[in-house]
Write a structure and sequence with these properties.
By secondary structure, the protein is an alpha/beta fold. It is 32% helix and 28% strand. It has a single domain, classed as 3-Layer(aba) Sandwich (Rossmann fold), CATH 3.40.50. 36% of the residues are buried.
Length: 199
C-alpha cells in the first residue's frame, strides 16, 4: 500500500526538524526544532569527526555555542562530558526549542541566552574563560570576521582554548589571529571545518 502524498510530505518535514545526538549519555536522543531562516544543523558525519578531534579536551570543558540553532553542537558537547555550555541564539522560536530540548534531557548545565551574538560578545565577559567555542554562523551572513575579532577580548578565551570554525567551502576565511594555531581542518561536501587552539 502506497503512502498518501500528504503523509510522505509530513514525514519529510518531521525528518528535517530533528537532529540526533550521536554520542555520550544522550546518544540516540533527538533534538526537535522548527525550521527558521539560516538554521542549518551540523551533520552527523562532521559532528562525529569534530568530537573525535575534541576527545582529549571535552571532559569537564566550559563551552560556548555562539550560533546554537538546533543545539546540535552545544548539547552534543554536554552529552559527551562537557561541564557546562552557554548557548547563544537570536531567533525566539529556536531559543524556545533549545529550552524545551534541554528540559526534556534534564540538561541542567546548559545556559540558554536569547541574544544577538555580536551584541552578547561585545557586552559580556565570563567569570572564567571558555575552553571550547563553537562558531558556526549562517553561511549567508557576514558574521565570521566580527566574531573572530570579538573572541580576542580579554577574559573570553585562555591559552589553550579551542575554537571550532564551520564555513561554506567556497567562503573566504576571516582574518585569523596569529595567536590561533590551526590544529585540524577538513572538507565534507559544501562544508569546510577547522579546529584552532589559542597559543
Amino acid at each position: 500500500m502506497k503512502n498518501h502524498p500528504s503523509t510522505a510530505i509530513h514525514a519529510a518535514k518531521v525528518a528535517r526538524s530533528q537532529v540526533r545526538i550521536i554520542g555520550g549519555q544522550w546518544r540516540g536522543r533527538k533534538l526537535q526544532f522548527n525550521e527558521v531562516a539560516g538554521l542549518r544543523p551540523t551533520g552527523d558525519r562532521i559532528r562525529e569527526t569534530l568530537f573525535n578531534w575534541l576527545t582529549p579536551w571535552i571532559d569537564g570543558a566550559r563551552c560556548l555555542d555562539l550560533f546554537a540553532g538546533s543545539g546540535a553542537l552545544g548539547i552534543e558537547a554536554l552529552s559527551r562530558g562537557a561541564a557546562e555550555v552557554t548557548l547563544i541564539e537570536k531567533h525566539p522560536q529556536a531559543a524556545e526549542n533549545l529550552r524545551d530540548n534541554c528540559a526534556r534531557l534534564k540538561a541542567d548545565d546548559a545556559r540558554i541566552i536569547q541574544a544577538d551574538t555580536l551584541v552578547w560578545l561585545t557586552n559580556n565577559s565570563p567569570d572564567k574563560p571558555f575552553d571550547i567555542v563553537f562558531l558556526d554562523p549562517p553561511f549567508s551572513s557576514d558574521l565570521l570576521q566580527p566574531c573572530c575579532e570579538l573572541l580576542q577580548k580579554p577574559g573570553l578565551l585562555a591559552t589553550g582554548s579551542l575554537i571550532y570554525l564551520e564555513t561554506d567551502r567556497y567562503q573566504p576565511l576571516p582574518e585569523i589571529s596569529p595567536t590561533w594555531e590551526l590544529l585540524r581542518e577538513k572538507t565534507a561536501g559544501q562544508v569546510s571545518y577547522r579546529l584552532y587552539r589559542v597559543s
